[in-house]
């Protein structure tokens, strides 16, 4: 089976993993469910970024965060925005 040319992206480790694994049945499905529960527990226990940080952001970043639904989503979006901006800067 020819999968096409190999690229750096195709050789990269897939950190997210398969979304299909949560629908598997049997022992493998149980392990995936336990892993998901542990990830959810960790997510609940990790603190959100302080509101004071968001008060001090430049206006263009504040505008990008206007449509978030909760603090966790706000944190993730801000970190993603900073990551993308850093890729545009020289050096």
What features would you describe in this structure?
With 91 residues, the protein is an all-alpha fold. It folds into 2 domains: 19-47, no CATH class; 49-91, no CATH class. It is 58% helix and 0% strand. It contains 5 helices and no strands. The protein has helices at residues 8-11, 26-45, 51-55, 59-64, 71-88. The radius of gyration is 19 Å and the shape is extended.
Q: What distance lies between the first and last C-alpha atoms, to the nearest angstrom? A: 41 Å
Count of alpha and pi helical runs? 5
Strand content: under 5%
Structural class, by secondary structure, is mainly alpha
Q: What is the ordering of alpha helices and beta strands?
A: HHHHH
Please state the overall shape, judged from the principal axes of the Cα atoms. Answer: extended
Q: Give the averaged pLDDT, no decimals.
A: 82
Helix content percent band? 55-70%
What's the alpha carbon Rg, rounded to whole Å?
19 Å
Region (Disordered): 1-34
Question: What are the key terms here?
Answer:
58% helix, mainly alpha, 5 helices, 91 residues, 2 domains
Give a short overview.
Residues 1-34 are annotated as: Disordered. With 91 residues, this protein is mainly α.
Describe the protein's topology.
Elements lengths: L7 H4 L14 H20 L5 H5 L3 H6 L6 H18 L3
């Amino acid at each position: 089976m020819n999968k096409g040319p190999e690229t750096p992206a195709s050789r990269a480790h897939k950190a997210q993993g398969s979304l299909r694994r949560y629908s598997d049945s049997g022992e493998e499905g149980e392990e995936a469910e336990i892993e998901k529960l542990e990830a959810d527990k960790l997510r609940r226990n990790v603190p959100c970024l302080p509101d004071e940080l968001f008060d001090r952001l430049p206006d263009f970043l504040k505008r990008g965060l206007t449509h978030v639904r909760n603090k966790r989503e706000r944190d993730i979006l801000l970190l993603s925005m900073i990551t993308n901006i850093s890729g545009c800067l020289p050096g």
